[in-house]
Amino acid sequence: MYEEIGATSISSESMKRTSVAVKEAQAAFKPLPRYVWNQCLLSPGQVTFLVGEAHVSVNIPSLTIEDYVVADSHNVQCGLAEVPLQETVQVGLQNEKLFIGGMEIEREDREWQWPANIGEPVGQEFVLPPIHPSLLAAASPDQTRDNLHAIYVSPKTGKMCASNGHILVEFPLGYRALHDGGVIPLEVMQVVQKLGEVRVQLYSVDGVTGFAVLTSKTAEIITPLAGEFPDYDQVMPKSIDKEIKLPKKQLLELLKKWMKTLKAEWFNGRSPGLKCTGKGDTLEIEVEHKGVKLIERLAVPGVGDSVWGINCKYLRTILEAFPGEVLMKIGANGKDGTLDTPMLFTDGSIRAVAMPMRIF
């Protein structure tokens, strides 16, 4: 399965006997992140995509192509889009040209390289819980930060975690084992989110866990792991001065209203910062963006005297991670009267941490 496969041609006669159901083939592209366009390998009953360094193989039983053909995945999808969904069309090589129906598709004249050695299995195969959107949103969008542009899956701690360096979101894995896990690239987890139940088997080479194989009913993913995830215990608050029950619904509604009013972007680092000032049982929230200032006061029992700042997008990501009530735990104010230690958000199962933002 993991050997090199060369792109070979299909005869004119074979072309007449190869086909694919268009609706089924188009469905194979749906799990892919929209911005991933790369090579794909057409093979009997299957299409395999390169997503970063990962191989994502999706079953297409109606693809009766008789050999292996490397093509540009974007062009293949465009070719499929030109054919009515209900049709079954011919797919194959004719005179060294790749066709889907009557449309010529750009072909990659190169060999397809599978991972040469993914190593030996580590521990038992386990099932991933559904991937929450907040987990994906908390990961760094910067592809150069391999270990943060990813999701950390740890059977040893029984947790899944993502961080962009400003916030961190942690979900229970629902499975614990003696062995540690791995850092799975973000693009792979975006695909996994759309596949339903997914089973994971980790693999190691020379004692180092370096690959994961993720399988569902319709797909298999072989992916290298993305380095070491930071030891995030060091950013967890060491001392808690107060616990505040946040009005999650009100805060989310306020954030969405303000972002619409300000015509601001929901994007990491670009969203405006919030200044939150507690006094008694009232939380005053202030935002300023492009010369426009908005202020709202919410009743938050026990908020006490505290001042802290956080990016709008980051607060939204954290609040949406929790299905119900959210408890915020914070330390004492710093010397300048503002919070300068990480803020912990939890419901007893899910945890999130945010670094305070200096906006004063």
**Based on DSSP secondary structure assignment, what is the total number of beta strands?**
24
Report the biggest beta sheet as strand number plus sense, adding barrel if it closes: 8 strands, antiparallel
- Taking pLDDT < 50 over at least 5 consecutive residues as the criterion, the unreliable ranges are 1-12
Number of helices: 7
How far apart the termini lie comes to: 58 Å
Mean pLDDT: 85
Query: How large is the radius of gyration?
Result: 25 Å
Outline, from the CA principal axes?
Answer: elongated
Q: In which order are the strands of the major sheet placed? A: 5-2-3-4-16-15-14-9
Structure in words:
The chain is α+β, with helices and mostly antiparallel strands. It is built from seven helices and 24 strands. The strands form four sheets. An eight-stranded antiparallel β-sheet has the order 5-2-3-4-16-15-14-9. Strands 13-10-11-12-24-23-22-17 form an eight-stranded antiparallel β-sheet. Strands 1-6-7-8 form a four-stranded antiparallel β-sheet. A hairpin with a 2-residue loop joins strand 7 (97-100) and strand 8. The radius of gyration is 25 Å and the shape is elongated. It starts with 11 loop residues before the first helix and ends in a 6-residue tail after the last strand. Residues 1-12 have low confidence and may be disordered.
